[in-house]
Amino acid sequence: MSPVAPFRSPYHPADEALAARLLADSPDAEAEARVERVARRLLSATRARRGAGGVENLLQEFALSTREGLALMALAESLLRVPDNVTLDQLIVDKLTVGAFERHQSSSDALLVQACAFALGLSSRVFTAEDTPRGLVVDMARRLGTPALRGAARQAMKLMGAHFVLGETIEQAISRSDDRYRYSFDMLGEGARTASDASRYFSSYASAIAEIGGSAGADALPGRPGVSVKLSALHPRYEPISRVRALDELAPHLLELARLAKHYDLVFTVDAEEADRLELSLDIIDRVVADPSLAGWEGFGLAVQSYQKRARDVIDHVAALAEAHDRRFMVRLVKGAYWDTEIKRAQERGLADYPVFTRKAMTDLNYIACADRLLAAPRLFPQFATHNALTVATILERAGDPAGYEFQRLHGMGEELFDALLSERTDVACRIYAPVGPHRDLLAYLVRRLIENGANSSFVARAADPATPERELLAAPHDVIARPENARHAHLPLPADLYRPLRANSKGVEFGDGAAVDALLDEIARARGRKISAVPSAGRGVEAARAVTSPIDGASIGDVAEADDETVRDAMAAAARAFPSWEKTPVETRASILERAADLIEARRGTLMALLQSEGGKTLDDALAEVREAADLCRYYAGQARSLCREEALPGPTGEDNKLRRRGRGVFVCISPWNFPLAIFVGQIAAALVAGNAVVAKPAEQTPLVAHEAIGLLREAGVDAGVLQFVPGDGAVGAALVADRDVAGVVFTGSVEVAHAIHRTLAASDGPIAPLIAETGGVNAMIVDSTALIEQVVDDVLTSAFRSAGQRCSALRLLCLQEEIHDDALTMLIGAAKELRIGDPRELSTHVGPVIDAEAKARLEDYLALRRAEGRILFEGAAPTTGTFVAPHIVRLDHARDLREEIFGPVLHVVTWRADEEEDFARLVDEIAASGYGLTMGLHSRIEARIGKLAAIAPAGNLYVNRNMIGAVVGSQPFGGVRASGTGPKAGGPDYLRRFLREETVTINTASFGGDARLLAMKE
Q: What backbone phi and psi angles, to 5 degrees, belong to 601?
């Protein structure tokens, strides 16, 4: 056990408060002048030197703001991993024809840049935008030849890889080492998805440590070489919700590697991970360094990212660890490489603020503050990783004895800067962080580095541009920020303001923030165990109450009294009586009620999430996501109603006044499903109410308790009891409601069969013609071609197919893998599926909970028994024997057209497809369409032309490209299908409310009162 308390620090403190602290340390004017002189000298030397061409040259030649630069990045990221020539040809055409490589004249004499420009220009002169791969394969025999073309493009990518990767093997990397530098070898394993991946990465690290140690020489620490290790490479579920498992399983592997590094007395650095995994990383490090077997060794280190707001707190924690263990630790201070990812993650999760700074100058300012902290800690050996001349000069000024620290740079980057520094200061040490591995595996890493350094605010990119004046490059970050109120990026809204002015973003929780998770779990625990009785809101005659049981363990969690025929009639009549008054209520009042409801939903999240888990079998992240979606729908529809329901002037001739008004239709029957018992239930009701309709709501019979709580919140927010009627019951109750003479419209989510029955009932009615808004699920497919990154595909497939136990309308049912990547992708997918934890969803570490009830379980088991008898089961997990659990399964099919029905559970079907001909892709899409459904569809491809083609022909209401297929965000991804998957309009979209409204126009002949005064008064 660590003698130091676990690391906990505010996850996203306010930028302004941090800026105030950082700016309070006013720089000494004389020292700043010395820093500027050194920085100017280094910058001038950097700009004057021209070598083989580092990242600076490449970024100057192919700026990321140009089409050529973006095409180059896309090619580098994917070209070498494409195994088949047909797809490779399509990728080359796609990327090279978007730029102007054939007209590009290289302005650089750097070998790397010239070689890339030549090879890419050669390729683009062969291809034209009008060419098709099929036509080109024939034409190449007469012209240059396809093999030569592929060779040119591949050679350009390999040259880039060779420049930025020290060696494809550790032996090669060691042989290429430069005696002027120290080295930290990075056996790049970005992340394990399977146990075999983790084992392979572990072996790679262990072999590298032994190889490095065998050739390390006699230098003492800190001058010895080392290895950098990523925790994400050592375990397939290195994630905050699996904290206990990671500590028990990952920490021993890290300890074993550390012991091996200690044996050779090497530098051993744990690389930085994302902000959400910081607490977990430090918990693992705390456990490892506390082991007595590492006592006395001073080679252990870790990376700290200064763009994270908690960086200084991390340094303090590590300093306390070093003191407690009477050792010296190494700390590699970096600025941070995944800024865009951190920003997006915070926005998606609805956090109160960002865990990283939003201005580059704040990161630079914090870097120096962190450097001061490191230099002041006697038990820490600082390693300053930077390519910024001003930062280097500042460290030189503040650090004192150069034996007490070192600089670091990336291999292939910052060469001119540090060559200039080392020629001037022979007493300064610099270590190269050197990627090692096959080029095809490391080019994704290379692209990330290029994008990072090619950003508009990057010193590297700006220094490469001769048009950028020195004074801008050397402006002190203290002066750039100047005041705390300038700490934030002016054009980057807080996560809460992402969707304004229409609505506020719902409040979420980052599961890597221990304090936030503890608070959430405490709210849920306090709400758990309360028995709820759900009863209809109208009528005297009800059926006898029945127990509501949990799918987790069969325990009784409450009871429900279901409506009878008399209750149905009374509820419809009460809603009809309440409608006229509600319809006349100003839209602003109705919208404000919905916004209050959203606030209440967030305030009572503990109660709602406890019910979603016990009654709906939802995991913690699914329950939280549903609470957020319910709040988002209320706020979104409130904003839409304010726009749609205001009186609108229409054009017309002189002397005529035309006004358009949208008003409620009457009584809407809302029938919602059990898979989203809060979000869909509330969303249907909110849309109908804010449009001025009265509502009779019937929840799914499996989840009446969640619905009962939601009704209470809506009424507490201000919805009149008569306007909103609650009628729990089975399908017969729903049928009776639909058949009532007072129905003005029906909104329904559920099966196709029930939707058809509702449609027939409404069509047979002698009353007013009532609209039906239906969403009915689908046979949802994802197509993957050989340009896709398999690790990303596996992540997205697991999420899309097995989250919510596959019980989402949008869940992935059919995975179509290009034949050439099928074996590798399927092996990784099965290995990753084995790592999912199936069990009680109330436990934080659970990934897959139960299916909704015994009937659903039996239906799935019957289906799987048939597939098992046919020998089609490729993978089946293990599920608990109590409750209604069905483990994830993967089933092989021969053709995409073989799946015609929706298998509603954690069952993924896999087929292969060939890409030999241009028409193969279209034929596959036709086979998918043969199911008759059209809800969601996915595509993983780096070929933009293919993306555009599928967008034009996709048989789906929602198409998701290079991401997962679930979790549609209100207002960003309006959700709904076509054909057998629904009627539209899309829920959470700008057209949804229109279906709940009737339109009327009022036309007044204003000229009938003696003429048109406005026309007569008009000036010439």
A: -60, -45
Instruction: Return d(Cα 274, Cα 420) in angstroms, integer.
Output: 33
Whether residue 775 lies in the annotated active site: yes
CB 88 within 8 A of CB 150: yes
The β-bridge relationship of strands 812-818 and 907-913 is parallel
Q: Cα(776)–Cα(422) distance, rounded to whole angstroms? A: 68
CA 371/CA 389 separation, integer angstroms: 15
The catalytic residue among 809, 835, 902, 927 is 809
pLDDT in tens, 749-785: 999 999 999 999 999 988 889 999 999 999 999 999 9
Tokens representing 437 are 């591995």
**Exposure string for 319-353, b = 16+ CB within 10 A, e = fewer:** bbbbeebebbbbbbbbbbbbbeebbebbbebbbbb
Name the helix (H) or strand (E) containing 184.
Answer: strand 182-187
Tell me how far apart the alpha carbons of residues 218 and 230 are, in angstroms, rounded to a whole number.
27
Distance CA 324, CA 949 (A): 61
CA-based torsion, 368, 372, 373, 375: positive or negative: positive
* Active-site residue identified among 36, 629, 775, 820: 775
Annotation says 56 is catalytic: no
Pairwise CA distance, residues 242 & 94, whole Å: 41
**In this structure, what are the phi and psi dihedrals at residue 548, rounded to the nearest 5 degrees?**
-105, 125
Coarse DSSP helix, strand, coil percentages of the chain, rounded to the nearest 5 percent: 50, 15, 35
In this prediction, residue 141 has a pLDDT band, given cuts at 50, 70 and 90, of very low
- Bridge partners (DSSP) of residue 434 are 185
Look at residues 968, 273, 454, 49 and name the one whose alpha carbon lies nearest to residue 959: 968
| DSSP for residue 539 | -
| Residue 621 CA: distances (Å) to CA of 144, 348, 517, 624, 879 | 55, 13, 11, 5, 20
Spell out the residues 6+ positions from residue 754 whose beta carbon is closer than 8 angstroms to its own. Answer: 731, 734, 748
Output the six-digit token pair for 259.
Answer: 């012991």
**Is the pLDDT score of 264 beyond 70?**
yes
CA 464 to chain centre: 32
| Residue 441 DSSP code | H
User: Is the sign of the CA dihedral 966, 970, 973, 974 positive or negative?
Assistant: positive
Q: Where are the beta strands (DSSP E) in 561-655?
A: 648-650
Cα–Cα dist 366/377, whole Å: 17
Q: How far apart are the C-alpha atoms of 992 and 973, rounded to whole Å?
A: 13
Whole-structure pTM value: 0.93
Mean pLDDT in the chain? 90
The amino acid at residue 264 is Y
In this structure, how many other beta carbons lie within 10 angstroms of the beta carbon of residue 89?
A: 23
405 with 223: CB under 8 angstroms? no
431: left (phi over 0), alpha (psi -120 to 50) or beta: beta
Q: Which residue has the tokens 């002015």?
A: 501
| Cβ 615 vs Cβ 552: under 8 Å | no
Q: Length of the chain, please?
A: 1020
Residue 737: per-residue pLDDT: 97
- Per residue in 55-95, pLDDT (tens digit) is 556 656 666 556 666 666 677 778 888 999 889 888 887 87
